[in-house]
């Protein structure tokens, strides 16, 4: 379900970009820019939310302490 919503937002962004490039009227282009910014903001917020929930890999190597060398007391 979440993937379908993301797809719809991406499709909307593509459509707005095409309309923006095809438009000739300045007022219409300004309106498309406003809509595009809102769609991009929504997409970024969703990506950030997904990244926050993404399981991070833990370091597999152990950080072992360097063993102390035994000094002979010379």
Give structural notes:
The protein is an all-alpha fold. The protein has a domain at 2-48. Helices cover 66% and strands 0% of the residues. The chain contains two helices and no strands. It has helices at 2-22, 26-53. The longest helix is centred in the middle third of the chain and has 28 residues, at 26-53.
Structural key phrases:
single chain, 74 residues, mainly alpha, 2 helices, 66% helix
Give the terminus-to-terminus CA distance.
72 Å
- Poorly predicted residue ranges: none
**Number of DSSP-assigned strands:** 0
Helix share, percent: 55-70%
Secondary-structure-based class equals: mainly alpha
Q: Overall mean pLDDT score?
A: 82
Taken from the alpha-carbon principal axes, the silhouette is rod-shaped
Q: Report the radius of gyration as a whole number of Å.
A: 26 Å
Biggest β-sheet description: none
DSSP summary: helix tally: 2
Can you write the helix and strand succession as a string? Answer: HH
> Into which percentage range does the β-strand content fall?
under 5%
What is this entry, summarized?
With 74 residues, this protein is mainly α. Helix content is 66%, strand content 0%.
Secondary structure blueprint with pairings:
Blueprint: H1 2-22, H2 26-53
Helix pairs in contact: 1-2
């Amino acid at each position: 379900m979440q993937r379908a919503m993301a797809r719809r937002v991406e499709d909307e962004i593509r459509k707005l970009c095409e309309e923006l490039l095809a438009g000739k009227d300045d007022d219409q282009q300004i309106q498309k820019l406003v809509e595009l910014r809102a769609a991009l903001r929504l997409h970024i917020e969703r990506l950030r939310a997904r990244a926050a929930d993404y399981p991070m890999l833990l370091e597999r190597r152990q950080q072992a302490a360097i063993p102390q060398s035994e000094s002979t007391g010379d």
